[in-house]
Amino acid sequence: MTTSTAPLLTPQATVALRDALLRHGYTRDGIVTRIGLEAAHALNRYDPGPALRLLGEDDPLGVLIRLFMCGRGVPLVQVEEALVPLLEPAGEGQVRAAVYLHPYEKWWAVSDFPLFLRPEAHDRRADRVLPIGPTATLLRRALLTHRVGTALDLGTGCGVQALHLSDQAASVVATDLSHRAARFAATTAALNGLDWEVLEGDMTQPVAGRRFDLVVSNPPYAVGPGTVHCVYRDSGRPGDTIGAELAAAAPDLLTEGGHLQFRANWAHVAGEDWRERVAHWLPAGGGLDAWIVQRGVTDARAYVDHWLEQSGGEEHLGQREAWLRWFEDRKITGVGTGTVVLRRTDRHDPVVRIEELSPEAAELTGAQVADWFTRQDWLRDHDPLTSRFRPGVGVRLWQEASLRPEPDAAARGWQLKQQLLKTPADGLNWNDRTTPLAVALLGASGREDETLGDHLTRLAEAEGTDRSRLVLAALPEVARLVERGALVPEGLAGRVGEAPA
After folding, report:
1. Rounded to two decimals, what is the model's pTM?
2. Is residue 275 in some structural domain?
């Protein structure tokens, strides 16, 4: 049986450290009270200047902020004993923090310092444990929040996703390939009084044969040659196959109805549709509903430069050329970034949707993810023809038309070019071309005395068309409108935002 990884501190040292942090107000609110909101925001941007100008020389909270948030040295005589296990010598009677101890929401997270604060070469180690960054925050924002029995944070790093899972799961398992990351995550758990099972190993290997209700992962997903320079960035798999590996593991990793959510990158290859590429990640016959959304695409050169800057920049100049040649050889022009959400249903007709969010869309939230699956369940379980609908809140129709260039003035008139349906859907801001039939269906929605079937009967009679043919044309339109939140089925409105079944 695999043994849970031990934290950096003994239980006694952990309790002493926690007591010291609480006693001196080393919390998010305590720091804001001590230095003000503006300086606290600067600290979160890894700018210690404003905070350092406001801190005293030897007050206990100031010492904690200097050590663990600013990365500065302080005289050893100013440090109380409970902090010593997390310190290292800094010369001339001073000590500095060996870890970045970050007050995060209602918790503390233990990681390495960001390179902005510790740019020295020895701080750019290959097994660096990153502090909580933008990608982790985006994944957390998209996390489903319903109560579950078992949850897994795969590739936990400092443990940020596991912290959030602790609020909704009866038991939490956190895994990481890096022994150092596993120890940091175990320390994060212990310091916050949380009981996680922290396991070491590559991808799903540490939990082989086990199933979970909710799995979340921010894996080392950088698209590249497959060489490992930074453990948090490079999976050792070439290209974007880490995403395919995670998706393929979902049927055996999830309980029935369980969800897997992960951040991913995928290659954009010249002459190929990126959607088809990502669709091949899903195992045939796996019984997985899938919603995969792309949030943006980065040019190949900008993508490589971004990752190298994150990991230290100048040390990897040779790596940059090798990486770009690898892209060029495979005709990779850019890399897409987004979120993958899979649900195990064991159905023979899974719903798979792979699409791109518009530039106007807000970042994906857990409530939006829950709503999307709720709408899919409704479409599976109900007959639209016997249902009543109302229009979604804020739905708007935009029409583009031009005047016909007819020489005869009498023949001139407006020629409709396209119709765009704009659907807020609580921040997703869908912007889709639509059809006259969809426009008619939306326009007639909201009548309490009329089902969709009734409306189609009335429409067929008015148009002199065959009703059965109209129904066949209308049902896909209705499904699309419901999925987007443009049409809301009667009785569904109160369930939006709840946990998916």
Report:
1. 0.93
2. no
